[in-house]
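explain this.
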Amino acid sequence: MYSSTFIFGTKHLDEEFHQLDKLIADAAKALPGYLGEEAWENRTTGLFSNVYYWESLEALQALMQHPAHLQAKAAQARWLDGYHVVISEVVRTYGNAELGHRMNVPAVNL
């Protein structure tokens, strides 16, 4: 399993941004290999984070090549005050089931 974390600051997020953001989220959910997502805001720094979970790097790459994602990437400077992307291989998940984390998958013992 893989995660892609998109960390960003914002400028003015207009209606076009929100429509494109929804298109990207809907496209991700429709792709084979999409496992889930979550979003976070750090109120101290003002940064946001969207984390997507994928079965494979190929599934993640399919979103990166989606027309809505390419459109957003080309226009990001209008809406974002910088961004950083972290692609990670998830080797283990564990914790309290009561938390209801989206990635409640069997742990991999290393």
User: Anything to note?
Assistant: Helices lie at 15-30, 57-64, 67-79.
